[in-house]
Amino acid sequence: MARLFNAYLMVHWNTATKPTTGADSVWIGVLKRDVRFRLAFEAHNPATRAQAEALIASVLDDRAKRRERTLIGFDFPLGLPRGLAAGLKLPGEAPWRALWDQLAKMVKDKADNTNNRFGVGSEINRRLTGGPFPFWGCPPRDTLTTLQPKRGRDHGPGDVPELRHLEAAQKSPNPVWKLYYNGAVGGQAILGIPLVRRLKEARGEAMRIWPFETGWTALTENALAGVDVVAAEINAAAAVVSPLPGESKDAAHMRALVEHFAKLDETGALAGLFSAPKGIAGDVVAGVEREEGWALG
User: Measured between alpha carbons, how far is residue 123 from residues 19, 133, 194, 231, 266 in Å?
Assistant: First the structure.
């Protein structure tokens, strides 16, 4: 059975404010063909997000030149809860893309890792509700009128949802509105979505974002004709991590993820993971495809 992909690239993002390596830094795992056409693993731990972006772009471009399609997975949300784009009165018929464009205008993530993620969360709060809601979580020194260290109130009927459909299904205790503290992924989303947008802008229709551009449906070779890259949010807990002798836990995690998806692809099981689970309601499918996204695996 033919694979859908020839290479697999998994990305663990971070929100560090200075160059950093090791734990809680950016890690990139790459599984690609070596000179003998065997799948070989590489782990990378760039000190800054700018270095990571350059490395990711280089790998994707190299695979495309070799006519090898790449699956790239990110461990942060590619969309935020339904209703946010409308609440911000963002233009366009695709809410996910409208939010991506807005974040690209707002986010400042410099080459030395200094960034304004708390300012972005605060400004979205101001535009959406005029107060410190729905984004929350920051060090006391970064407290603003429209961003507080702790969650101020619960979500009500007239608010954007606290959880995406994905987090609700996972019974996750960490909403994407949480920008700080253990388990927070909101900051990674704010800094990561502009990265994925730049990668997409550079490649146009040769790069597809799942499920926004592919639909929440099984992928086929025909559907991916002319596509060099498919990008997806991934479930970072999808693979069992067992470090090899001398291998760091982070490198082992990246290896486990790329090998996990490669094995699924080899057996033909990966294609079906791109489809919605059976029995999902139509309004959930619409919310996932138009604005929120889902996690592969």
Answer: 26, 10, 17, 28, 45
